[in-house]
């Protein structure tokens, strides 16, 4: 199934394929205003890969004048990020008559890079011979920069979470765990991979506490320092404090909980010792 971008590319390709490419001097006149001034970057080459036509947006994006690209090979745009295997696979795809669809990083005239979401395909004559290649693309540089920044932010956040002393977790409304930080191994005594197969109720000394916790969080949207005892793998029991918030799906409906679990056994022990001393 094709996505919306591919469908948009198809409509542009259809217009281009109706052009009579035998009359090279008249290609520009035959192409509609929709192609010439399109938001797409359009490049048409002959069967040897020599550029015969580029549209206005190609010129505006790359910084090249039309006289600097017509008659040249598209490799003038080539950046160093992609391997030779990448280009070999691309050419094998379009020479076989199939469409190549994907992202390519190219260079502008000033040396700055830009990212394109590309559709590259061949045009054949009545004898089924390839006469031209067509590249239709969108400048997605900003989108790629945003995605890169988000990946870096996610990596930094994951580093912080992985080194937390407390336990950060995510679970559905039934308490089934979907994410938990490595610190859970220290508190619960189980391996992380095994913890993710378990339910929050599995650790509670009194499983009914989970119902009390969920009723509160569904009503208030958050829970602050909900305390209870948990049973560890070695059967020992410790006090923990749970602070969490309700998570919502895209429609605004409750979908789960995420929060912080903290071992407060030392605090409870100190408080109990203080009470014992006060009673003497």
Structure description:
39% of the residues lie in helices and 29% in strands. It is an alpha+beta fold and 280 residues long. The longest helix has 22 residues, at 141-162. The chain is elongated. A hairpin with a 5-residue loop joins strand 3 (100-107) and strand 4 (113-124).
Considering the chains and any ligands shown, give keywords for the structure.
5-stranded antiparallel β-sheet; 12 helices; 280 residues
Low-confidence stretches: 274-280
What kind of sheet is the major sheet? 5 strands, antiparallel
Structural class: alpha+beta
- What's the quaternary structure here? single chain
Query: How much of the polypeptide forms β-strand, as a percent range?
Result: 25-35%
Strand order of the largest sheet: 2-1-5-4-3
How many helical stretches? 12
> SSE order, as H and E?
HHHEEHHHEEEHEEHHHHEEEH
Average pLDDT score: 83
């Amino acid at each position: 199934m094709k996505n919306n971008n591919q469908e948009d590319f198809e409509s542009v390709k259809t217009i281009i394929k109706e052009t009579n490419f035998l009359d090279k001097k008249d290609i520009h006149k035959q192409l509609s205003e929709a192609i010439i001034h399109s938001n797409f970057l359009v490049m048409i080459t002959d069967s040897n890969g020599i550029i015969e036509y580029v549209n206005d947006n190609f010129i505006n994006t790359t910084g090249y004048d039309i006289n600097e690209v017509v008659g040249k090979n598209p490799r003038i745009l080539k950046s160093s990020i992609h391997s030779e295997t990448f280009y070999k696979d691309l050419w094998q795809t379009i020479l076989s008559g199939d469409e190549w669809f994907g992202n390519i990083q190219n260079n502008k005239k000033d040396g700055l890079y830009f990212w394109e979401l590309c559709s590259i395909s061949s045009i054949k004559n009545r004898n089924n011979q390839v006469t031209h290649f067509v590249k239709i693309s969108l400048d997605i540089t900003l989108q790629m920069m945003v995605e890169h920044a988000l990946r870096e932010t996610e990596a930094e956040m994951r580093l912080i979470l992985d080194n937390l002393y407390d336990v950060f977790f995510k679970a559905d409304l039934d308490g089934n765990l979907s994410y938990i930080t490595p610190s859970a191994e220290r508190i619960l005594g189980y391996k992380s991979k095994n913890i993710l197969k378990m339910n929050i109720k599995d650790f509670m000394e009194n499983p009914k506490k989970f119902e009390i916790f969920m009723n509160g969080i569904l009503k208030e949207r958050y829970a602050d320092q909900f305390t209870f005892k948990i049973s560890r793998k070695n059967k020992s029991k410790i006090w923990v404090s749970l602070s969490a918030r309700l998570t919502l799906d895209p429609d605004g409906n409750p979908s789960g909980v995420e929060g912080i679990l903290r071992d407060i056994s030392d605090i409870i022990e100190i408080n109990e010792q203080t009470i014992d001393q006060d009673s003497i």
